[in-house]
Amino acid sequence: MQQKTHRGPETRRRGEAPDAGSQGAETVQAPTTRESPSSTVWLMEAICEPVNLRHALKRVKANKGASGVDGMSVSELPGYLKHHWPELKAQLLSGSYRPFPVRRVSIPKPGGGERLLGIPTVVDRFIQQAVMQVLQEQWDTSFSDSSYGFRPGRSAHQAVKRAQGYIESGYNRVVDLDLEKFFDRVNHDVLMSRIAKRVSDKRVLSLIREFLNAGVMEAGMVKPVTEGTPQGGPLSPLLSNLLLDDFDKELEKRGLKFVRYADDCNVYVKSERAGSRVMGGLTHWLSRKLKLKVNVRKSAVARPETRKFLGYSFRTGRKVWCVVSPESVKRFKIRVRELTGRNTGRSLEQLIQPLKRYLTGWKSYYKLNQWPSLLCNLNGWIRRRLRSILWKQWKTGRKRYKELRSRGVSKDLAAQTAGSDHKEWRISCSPALNIALSNMLFTRLGLPEL
């Protein structure tokens, strides 16, 4: 679909187009000249405020992302808004704006299976971002202190530290709740009832309902959607937090210690018996109140060291250590293997280049790890893999001898190593390759240390 105009009545009403060159504002304030903010009657006017729109445009451009069903790219968005914003604004203020269906794509999940994403058009992403900013400012302060996902000033690291604190305090059993296909199973009526308690502007309520019901385009056909908040749009994380805030409040009312990041929730108790009781009660409550199902196969009451939370696990003893989970290490090695294929014929510099960004990001996320030997072992494993790849590339004994000699290996050691019939992986930890391809060499070439 190549059409790049959104449906709605033609209008001559003028509006203020977002300035594509502006840097925007870091915080978004609702208009102070309207009625009391608690009434939320003038919410759509706040959404259409220029400062809010500039910030929304800035965020959409920074997030980049793929095109939606209309084919428009993020780079085309500023130019489109300059010409069409008055019409779009009139549609929003009159309550007649209609979003396009989302484009359905699937990506592999780290633990296996697929995650379905819904990619809105860039114009719809811009409008969703503008709506999200105003709603988040109004709602966020009412959310639970134990909720960390998709909230300003909060992070996965803070959630992991809080979980570690509970375990250190003697809560040595975790009720690990996995909500089955949460983003795909959200009941629209249940969600809209929660929104309506906080929003009285019927235009905003109608717009959010339209986003939820916009449908999904697959193989050129639009399929209606009756449940779920498609992952891929800026508004979905906030709506998920709003729905699960009821769950947070229920946990607080029961006096439970918990940490929630999006749909990933861990409750900490002091015994197996208490954990089983909590698991049964919460499973029933979620089904009855929020129409959500707990995935029994992936949920469990267990010791924290046998489970993972946001990619981390915990080791217990005289103290509680935060460590990278075994599953995360396994995914790390799979990704490094993908980035350093053995049959590419690339030079050492070319092999290291794609690793740099991945290793830097991985190191930043897993900086809470308190098991240094694990990272030392991974550093050694990466270097050994690179050595084995080069050894395979050199192929013949003559080529290998020449490469070793040129890199400072003695004649006898070079000859002995080049004539070995051992496989690449075993040779990769030999004295000769450690001399020829030293740790210092990898550092000079920019290979990050974990």
Low-confidence stretches: 1-17, 20-39
Order of helices and strands: HHHEEHHEHHHEEHEEHEEEHHHHHHHH
- Strand percentage: 5-15%
Count of individual beta strands:
10
SS content category:
alpha+beta
Mean pLDDT score: 86
Coarse morphology? globular
Q: Enumerate how many helices there are, as a single number.
A: 18
Give the end-to-end Cα distance, rounded to a whole number of Å.
46 Å
Largest sheet: 4 strands, mixed
Using only CA atoms, what is the Rg? 27 Å
Task: Give the spatial strand order of the biggest sheet.
Answer: 2-1-4-5
The level of helicity is 40-55%
Distinctive features:
single chain; 450 residues; alpha+beta; 4-stranded mixed sheet; 4-stranded antiparallel sheet; 18 helices; 11% strand; globular; disordered N terminus
What does this structure look like?
With 450 residues, the protein is α+β, with helices and mostly antiparallel strands. It is 48% helix and 11% strand. The chain has 18 helices and ten strands. The strands form three sheets. A four-stranded mixed beta sheet has the order 2-1-4-5, with no helix packed on it. A four-stranded antiparallel beta sheet has the order 6-7-3-8, sandwiched between helices. A hairpin with a 2-residue loop joins strand 6 (257-261) and strand 7. Helix 2 packs across helix 4 and helix 14 runs antiparallel to helix 15. The longest helix is centred in the C-terminal third of the chain and has 23 residues, at 372-394. It is globular. The two termini are 46 Å apart. Mean pLDDT is 86; it is low at 1-17 and 20-39.
